[in-house]
UniProtKB/TrEMBL annotation:
PANTHER family: FERRIC ENTEROBACTIN TRANSPORT SYSTEM PERMEASE PROTEIN (PTHR30472), FERRIC ENTEROBACTIN TRANSPORT SYSTEM PERMEASE PROTEIN FEPG (PTHR30472:SF24)
Keyword Transmembrane assigned: yes
Entry annotated with the keyword Coiled coil: no
SUPFAM superfamilies in alphabetical order: ABC transporter involved in vitamin B12 uptake, BtuC (SSF81345)
GO terms for biological process, alphabetical: siderophore-iron import into cell
Name of the featured protein: ABC-type enterobactin transport system, permease component
């Protein structure tokens, strides 16, 4: 490690060790500033257009009654949810792509999003559960899917990354079939409710609905960031990580459960939102020109992507509002096609 290019938080031999590259730190500051600027702009943009001064006064509790309600009770919960849930998806994608050593190894491609959706759909269609029951179903479905995929991928004392991806895609296909059966078996009203939730939306978000998921995501991100060094060692390969004293299988399982929890918590709050977890680490990695990516930068990039996508969904066809999942899956599909073409063997040969 070149000390002129890095800061180190913690010690090389301690459990908590966080090396920070100066270039990565600069990118993090830029992404943080972009998130803050876009958030302030979004707080003032809408049917009732507000000035910067109005927004600042409302944030400090000094605005008139109507402006105070619009900023702090209508717009701020949505923007806060977009930032924190986008960060959660970015961190989740960075962990998975590092562990699996594959740019396609994100939770929405491997199928953990589908597992969370299956859990929520089961609660909606079979038990007619409310918002919190649906959120609990999504969290349980995501975690159960991760455990099943890990168990099926286990072979001769380990679960290799490529095998995890293949097994995850197969389990995702089975869950998609199960979800389709649930939808066609449900009543029309239930199927419409499930389809609306399945589109992934931040419309109508309130503090009371999303606070549990936001608190959980913040705690999980805080737990994941200090494990950056262990993730980098695991990304070097199982043999190299084991030689450097990392308990490979235990660490991989713990990090996978942490990453799945982040994805499932975001899904529980808003419904499945695709491609943020896939794109955020990749864009950050390409901006830095590095092989690995810091979790903090992936978090800021995920927050910026989801916040921008939600503003497009909110205002592009105003007064109608699109689910943000429609925007991310449309833009993400183009990005995935570009990624596959750009990284194809014909291009690299």
């Amino acid at each position: 490690m070149n000390r002129a290019d890095h800061f180190l938080i913690g010690g090389l031999d301690s459990a908590v060790s966080l090396p920070l590259d100066k270039r990565a730190l600069r990118l993090g500051v830029i992404l943080c500033a972009a998130c803050l600027g876009l958030s302030l702009f979004a707080l003032g943009w809408g049917t009732l257009t507000l000035t910067f001064n109005d927004v600042v006064q409302a944030l400090f509790g000094n605005a008139q009654g109507q402006i105070q309600v619009v900023v702090t009770q209508w717009r701020l919960p949505r923007i806060t949810a977009a930032v924190i849930l986008g960060a959660a998806l970015g961190v989740s994608g960075a962990i998975f792509q590092s562990l699996l050593r594959n740019p396609l190894g994100s939770p929405d491609v491997v199928g953990f999003n589908t597992g969370a959706y299956s859990g929520a759909l089961l609660v909606i269609a079979v038990f007619q559960g409310g918002y919190y029951e649906t959120a609990a179903g999504a969290l349980s479905g995501g975690l159960a899917t991760a455990l099943v995929v890990y168990a099926l991928a286990w072979r001769k004392g380990s679960a290799p990354g490529f095998r995890l991806i293949i097994v995850g895609i197969a389990v995702s296909a089975l869950l998609n079939a199960f979800n389709t059966w649930l939808m066609i078996s449900a009543s029309l009203q239930t199927a419409m409710s499930a389809a609306l939730w399945g589109a992934g939306s931040l419309n109508g978000v309130t503090w009371s609905k999303v606070s549990p998921s936001l608190i959980f995501c913040l705690l999980a991100i805080a737990a994941a960031v200090p494990m950056q060094r262990r993730i980098r060692l695991l990304a070097m390969g199982d043999d190299a990580a084991q030689a450097l004293g990392v308990p490979v299988n235990r660490s991989r399982l713990a990090l996978m459960l942490l990453a799945v929890s982040l994805t499932a918590a975001a899904t529980a709050a808003t419904g499945p939102i695709s491609f943020i977890a896939l794109a955020a680490p990749q864009i950050t990695r390409r901006l830095l020109g590095a092989n690995d990516v810091s979790l903090l930068n992936a978090a800021w990039m995920g927050a910026l992507l989801l916040l921008a996508a939600d503003q497009i969904a909110h205002h592009l066809f105003a007064p109608s509002q699109l689910p943000v999942g429609v925007v991310t899956i449309s833009v993400g599909g183009v990005y995935l096609a570009w990624l596959l073409i750009n990284d194809s063997p014909r291009k690299t040969s």
